[in-house]
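Regression test attached.
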Amino acid sequence: MAEDTPVPKLNFEYWLNKAIEWGQATTLESQKDVCLHLPQLQEFLHEIYETLKHKDSVVAIQQFPLIGQLLGRLCWNPFVVGYDESQKTLMWCLCCLYSSEPQNPVELKANSWIRSLLCHLLSSSKWESNEAETSTFISTLGYTSADYYCHLVKNMVFSLVTELRGNQFNGLYIQGRVSASRVNAMSLFCLPLITLPDVTPLLETLLLYHGGASKEILSSQFLEAVNEAFLKKKISLPETAVFSLWLRHLPSLEKATLYLLDQLVSIQLNSLEEVACVIKDSLLPQAASHPAIFRIVNEIFKNALLETDGTPEVMTIIQVFTQLFLQAHQNENKQHKFPLKAYFPYHHQPLVTALLKRPFELPATHWSAHLKHISDILKALVEDTNVSSLADLFEIWFLVVRFGEWPDIAAEQLLKAAGEPDALLWLLAFYYCPQNENQQRTQTMVEAKAVYNHLMMLFNCTVLSVKALEAAVHSITDTEQCCNQHLLTHLLTNFLLFSSGGHTIAQEFIYHITETTDSSKEVCSLLTRTAYRINHNGEENERTVKLLNELLEKLTLKV
Amino acid sequence: MEALLELVEQLPALLAGARSALVRDWDSLTLDRALEWARYFQHLHDRFRTRPRLREVLGRRLRRAQLSPSLGFPHLGRCPQLLGLALLENRALPPTACRCLLRSLLQPSGAEAGPEPHSLALLARRKAASRLLALPSSPPLSPADMEPQLQAEAQLLLGRLREEGQEAESAGEAAGRPRWFSAVLEQLPTPRVFEVVAAALLGQGNGAERAGGGGLAGNSLDGNRASATGEECVAGPLLSWLVGNQERFSAFCLFLPGSLLASLAGHYSQLSRPYLDLLAGCGSHLLYDPLQGRWVKSCPDKAVLSWEELRERFTCLYQGSAVLRGQTQAALKLLKAHDGDFQVCGLSVWTDLLTEVEECLRKDYLPLT
């Protein structure tokens, strides 16, 4: 396949012109331009190699007569050679062009030229006039250029790091004596070297460097490239450096958040533990302890929710994220931690306080009361005061979504705990159907109450038949409003999990519901959340846990 | 075992051959075999480096096989790179063999190629990195801040000395000056070699303090051991080389800046005495010129310091450790006493020096009180 795919002639000319334009990249213009094109150039070189590797060197030169020029020029451009894997590909290409049986002086010359080029790339040899003495010294010691450059790079990094960190002189740190243009130059020159492990200390120091200027002095190309490398796990940086990067460069933060969402949505969410793991690894919950970062991440989540019309996966992700954020915030040892309320400045503070209480902070017997409390505050906010705009309503609803544990627990408590169901039902109705201009929420509430009553009658029956639940099912499939559907599915699923007779018909019933209403993803999501909650919070009887796991297994196979 | 030792003896010949015109007759088979040998040597090194007695036996056998022994046990570990790069540079290697060499060194192939291609790509990358990171440097902030290239050379020298020391230790021999020592230092031109030796001594002295400045070259197992024996076998040869030859030592002291020398003298007592003696010698060549009101050189000889330089040197020494300051002060006072113990200026260079240096330092301290 590689043999037949011709490398477009146009591309070749383009890159050759670029290489000529860049020269050895001695001007700022050319340096910036090279940095901009490094990834595409690497790909192009790889394509060339794939084309060359099956060919004879003579044929190769016939097909690409100017390839020598291109490779030669690129080899003298330290930005290109220093980048990622470009040097490998360059050397492989050179190997391909070397002829093992040169037939004429031209080929001999070509061979010789290739050797010189490789020597230039690899050794501190006698070929480089300014390094002649060093090279004899090193080889007499019995070392190679590999050892020498290993030390040299580390020393240079150390020296630059020291310069940036300032110097301790009589106990004072004299920082800021490095000019802004020098720091900017440093960041640009580091760009090809980001994935070289020796350079990581310098990256860290640059990211944490604050020169006192109001504008950003690090090159934005550099910041972008570091972010890319971090997201793809090609480098590992300490948390403080990553946070600093995101604080200084908004596009990087946005990219990181969207990348996380992409990752989570595309992989199969088998368990919330996995989701939590991925989110934690991304360092975003920890970074969100900076209110600025928290705000921006939430904006992005909000948009994601709107764009996907509130799919359960995204809602779950947001929930888990918020939980991890709270955990990270709690674990922080910093003296000047922001109080949690500071992260939700535009919201009704009593509601925030009520929602911030995690379930495990209260004994299970108090959950119903707390939920009633939340429901009452919400109701007052939403119904009695003039909630002026749809946007405000959305904000309130989004707040509740983030603490989605509570609505989930409300749905459980409805079935398990005795007491007035109205407040909890209202909460759930609001969760699934926040708007009420056309009385949708009221309608939902009414229907939900009817189903609830019906279910409660059947709750303690040890023997249940499918028929007995059919009436409830009909009301789900019949209803036109989808928010009703979600709420009723939730209630029904919980019923099957927690009631005495439910487990016998659970498998069959769930299958039936998900088939007729196309809600397998939703049920799956619900079950996953319940499993996660049980693992972390509650005690639950074995039968329920077993049923839960069985259902999940079946459903995840289907989805 | 004997067979193994005989094989190991071949290493110097292999490397020497790879650098010579002998490769003219090599074909791809010979080349493959040579590379295999190199890998085999590396394998031996990896197997035996934690077994000191075997190491010692191999090392001794290796040294026996050389006229001027410069290769030791650690070189077995570096063999693939030593051989590969030597062959690459050797223009006498015929094209077929060369093609074979390039393929095995650089191109991705089966598992045996292993770390080799990766490390050469890393080398190319690091070399490019050294070009990129060579921003014009700001003025050095302390004598310990030396130019990175100089430091790298010093680190390699130190590494080699440490390897020697470890081999000598495992053989139970006392660490002496390695036989290759002078030959190696002769490779560098005179001013440079002083800088490298100074950097090496400083690096060794600061051993534990430097955070990540440079690791150990080569495959030494025990890292940065600033132990007594370590110090002795590394600093020892360097110091004796410096102090052993009077002309060399004098050139060394005159070439390097006073601050650096003060730093070295502070770390190594073997240097402070000769250095002070040298300065004493320089001072005795100064004459007082009453018309100009200052001390001038009695003969316009480059190998003598001027009054200002001498004062600067002594000031630096005073700014060193308490021990060094004490030593310097005692020396100056003694010289002053022997010279007549004058209090008035213009009669004894030592009186004047002592006065000015102490006055200078007092002024420095005033703003801080």
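Expected vs. actual: identical. Residues 56 and 172 of chain B are 9 Å apart (CA to CA).
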